[in-house]
Design goal:
With 257 residues, this protein is of the alpha+beta class. It is 31% helix and 24% strand. The longest helix has 22 residues, at 5-26.
């Protein structure tokens, strides 16, 4: 019988641990605190009228920022959803783009249709998102409760947006860099991220970055609309690593003659 005692004790301890974890899951945050960290980040959406490519790039001080921020579909458009984020804004916006709605109408409709299920700790007033169609027309929204500093700036064939930033200069420099940089869309998006970081970027630092570019049949192999899909999930210099990947990809290398 005494040989069973350690097993009984360990089983009881394990059961207690499960109960504790269940209790914590039922109460993920203290009252008044958000259940998750906002996706505090800066992103750029861009369109190349010469190639028809559309895409976006993003950097943040969160793990794997590319997981849920960028959404794109060839001949449809691209979406960035961040801050006090509702990830469903991405597929909902793409569906409305498919239906022919303008980015301006989509931004208004998606936000107004948000039922705001957790206003006490995850308010829709803190959402931030941008929508661009396949022609490069774009609209953006920054809620009044998006983590400070938060805002967006629309430029020629681009939109820069961010929250928990060093200031307005971040999005302003991003637009300037996108408009002035030449070459493939991936290099222009990358230049925008680098300019945003040089202007102060995310006040908390850097951790992850991502890029997504699409065009109908624009990817390698057959029936592939993905020109670029890159993620740097955890790196002390994610933008630098993203540049390495872009330059290693077919879009970043000189064309063979």
């Amino acid at each position: 019988m005494h040989r069973l005692l350690p097993f009984v004790f360990n089983l009881a301890s394990f059961t207690g641990l499960l109960c504790l974890l269940a209790a914590q899951s039922a109460h993920p945050a203290r009252e008044g605190e958000p259940p998750w960290d906002p996706v505090a980040t800066f992103s750029i959406l861009g369109h190349d009228p010469e190639t028809g490519e559309v895409g976006g790039a993003v950097q943040s001080r969160v793990f794997s920022v590319g997981n849920g921020v960028l959404w794109a579909e060839a001949d449809v458009g691209v979406v960035a959803t961040q801050a006090v984020v509702d990830v469903s804004y991405g597929p909902k916006s793409l569906a409305l783009l498919r239906g022919g709605l303008s980015p301006e109408r989509i931004v208004k409709k998606v936000w107004e249709d948000d039922s705001d299920p957790r206003p006490q700790d995850w308010s829709k007033q803190g959402r931030q998102f941008a929508v661009m169609n396949a022609k490069g027309e774009v609209a953006a929204f920054t809620g009044s409760k998006a983590p400070d500093w938060a805002g967006h700036k629309i430029g020629k064939s681009c939109s820069a947006q961010g929250n928990i930033l060093a200031g307005a200069a971040v999005v302003e420099r991003m637009v300037e860099a996108f408009e002035k940089t030449t070459g493939h869309l991936s290099l222009r998006l990358l230049a925008a991220l680098e300019a945003g970081q040089a202007a102060g970027g995310d006040k908390r630092g850097m951790q992850s970055a991502a890029m997504l570019i699409v065009k109908k049949n624009g990817g390698v192999w057959l029936n592939n609309d993905v020109v670029v899909r890159l993620q740097v999930d955890d790196n002390p210099e994610p933008i630098k690593e993203l540049r390495r990947l872009v330059e290693k990809s077919p879009t970043g290398r000189p064309r063979r003659r």
